[in-house]
Amino acid sequence: MLAITYRVNLNATRCAPPQRTKGVLLAAHRLPRLLAGTLAVLALGVTAPAEASTQAAAAPACKGATCNGKNPNATGCDKDAVTPAGAVARSDGGGPAVQMRYSKKCNAVWARFESAANSNWRGKLEVKNGNPYVFNASPNYAAYTTMVNASLVTRPCVEAYDGVGGSWACTKKWY
Fold it and tell me: Of 46, 99, 148, 149, which residue is least crowded by CB atoms under 10 Å?
């Protein structure tokens, strides 16, 4: 919080005569009190917008089904995301792992590669009784899918990189 100190001599016995400055009449003996009051109001006003913006930042941009197809980073859902225990798919032949990420705040899930990887690798978030979200790795960043409602049954998968494609390693457990 901003602290401003201003001293005002309340025991002053002499006041300067009123002055006219560009059409505004200012009493010199009132100026210190006016200035102190204005500074106090400004100091209080500095904290209110900061508190409001903190509350606004805490509110999720989407929740549940309204997150379907949205970017977890752009919506801020990645801020509280965790990887549930065991929700990591690994290929038998090595290579990058695919995690399932969950945001409690947004009640949404998505899949991502743990790290940057050769773009020949593919991952997916399987949705039980629905279409999978397939994505390619990137050598520049940890690639990820868009989100789906966490109430849907899903699991992460990674494609075995064998030059042929189509062989997927998924977690046995559905989440």
Answer: 46
The Cα 63–Cα 72 span in angstroms is 11
* DSSP3 helix / strand / coil % (the chain, rounded to 5): 25, 25, 55
Q: How far apart are CA 147 and CA 64, in angstroms?
A: 9
> What is the number of other CB atoms lying within 10 angstroms of the CB of residue 104?
12
- How do the pLDDT tens digits run along the chain, 175 residues long? 334 443 444 444 444 444 444 444 444 444 444 444 444 433 434 333 444 444 455 678 999 999 999 999 999 999 999 999 999 999 887 889 999 999 999 999 999 999 999 888 999 999 999 999 999 999 999 999 999 999 999 999 999 776 677 789 999 999 9
SS in 3 state form for 30-85?
CHHHHHHHHHHHHHHHHHHHHHHHHHHHHCCCCCHHHHCCCCHHHHCHHHHCECCC
Under a CB-based contact definition with an 8 Å cutoff, are residues 155 and 89 in contact? yes
